[in-house]
Amino acid sequence: MQNSIEIAEDQTLAITPTPNLALDTLKSFVRTNGARISSIRLSSKMEGLEANGSAREILLHCSGFRSLTLFDIGLSDRDLDLGAHPELESLDLSWCPSLGSGTASQFEKLTKLKHLNLDYCECIDDTLGTHIEKLTQLETLSLMECNGITDAIGPHLTGLKNLTSLTLMSTRISDAIGSHLEKLPQLRSLTLYAMDRLTDAIGPHLQRLSQLEQLDLNCCDNITDAIGPFLMELVNLVSLELNRAKLTDAFFPYLDKLTKLQNLNLHSWNGISDAVGPYLESHTQLKRLELHGCNLSDAIGPHLEKLQGLERLDIHSSPMITDALGAHIRKLGRLKGLLLSYAPHLTDTIGQDIKHLENLELLSLVGNRGISAQIAHSFEGLQKLRHLYLNHCKDLLPEDGQHFEKLCQLQFLGLSGRPATAAALRQHLQTTLPDLKVSFW
């Protein structure tokens, strides 16, 4: 493919492909066409972009653009002059780890800014607050993995009355941020993923975010059932994620009022059992359910089959389930993703039920030693199946490639095997299914 630079239909500066494109060629194009560009997306694949102020030079030749993405580029504060672009509405500087206070001090000039993404900008700290508190048009703010962010940023957030989405994943905030978050009642999405300083004490503050639709408390290991009475008041929740929280069956009655839930992730490692079934079955609007690592058995099946809207079901690492669960799963006709990995009692027989899931696009049976390559014959009629994972199932034989020959719809196949077996299988599949990507691990 030859290098090309063009302005897409949405007036985005498009570079195809970005690697090895001569920087002088790009600069020349921008000098000629800069006034026509409304959106710029550049990444680390553009070699030399971070050298000698090249990024600054490119931007200076563009005028009036409203969206800027500089992804994974080794820029420093001196490489950017954002004040020259007050018309910016969207700014994404994610994965630019050397950007710090010098860049942050320029944000206050961007009074039209609506979207700001600083994910993985490791040098960004609480001084950011004084520079964004006047950005009253800001609607989304993402500070994922900004390790210098603490509760001290809280007071600077309270004036952002248009903020609808806030991500503070893997920062150093604690329950103390709650008193500031509750002053943002317009929030629709809040991500507090992997916050080991958060406890149930955050609950009374979250309860006041009555418009919240998406709440991510995944990997907040100190959250327990005690947060339930507060979360039950968030009746507009569409998505609730509490992966790795210390939850038990006692948490589920609190979900009764959350009638809009479509995504529920409560991976909890044995604290949750089949007893939650009656509470689950009332949530017929659920599209995505993740209960992996829970203490579930086949008895959960009659309750799951009532969730006719489910598009993704993840109950992997449920060691008590058997092939008998298939009789219930086969009734979930809208399923697109099914994860039944690490269920040691499953055998090839489960395939006779899975084959009825005609909308299935992804199937994971990883780590089930009772399942062999022969199960693939059950899936020949699944015309939408694109991803199949059979890694660490029954030991493969070199001739097992024949079992996959009719899965011409597959795009990705995960297998495991000894080096000689893997080589034979790979060669066979490359011949019969040349477009199939096969991964051995």
Features:
441 residues, alpha/beta, Leucine-rich repeat, LRR (right-handed beta-alpha superhelix), 17% helix
Question: What does this entry look like structurally?
Answer:
With 441 residues, the chain is an alpha/beta fold. The protein has 2 domains: 1-173, Ribonuclease Inhibitor (Leucine-rich repeat, LRR (right-handed beta-alpha superhelix)), CATH 3.80.10.10; 296-441, Leucine-rich repeat, LRR (right-handed beta-alpha superhelix) (Alpha-Beta Horseshoe). 17% of the residues lie in helices and 15% in strands. It has a 19-stranded mixed β-sheet, covered by helices on one side. Helix 1 links the parallel strand 2 (12-16) and strand 3. Helix 1 (23-33) packs parallel to helix 2 (54-60). The longest helix has 14 residues, at 419-432. It is globular. The model has no long low-confidence stretch (mean pLDDT 91).
Topology:
Layout: E1 4-7, E2 12-16, H1 23-33, E3 39-43, H2 54-60, E4 67-71, E5 90-92, H3 101-104, E6 115-117, H4 128-132, E7 140-142, H5 154-157, E8 165-167, H6 178-181, E9 189-191, H7 203-206, E10 214-216, H8 228-231, E11 239-241, E12 263-265, H9 277-280, E13 288-290, H10 301-304, E14 312-314, H11 326-329, E15 337-339, H12 351-354, E16 362-364, E17 387-389, E18 412-415, H13 419-432, E19 437-440
Parallel strand pairs: 2-3, 3-4, 4-5, 5-6, 6-7, 7-8, 8-9, 9-10, 10-11, 11-12, 12-13, 13-14, 14-15, 15-16, 16-17, 17-18, 18-19
Antiparallel strand pairs: 1-2
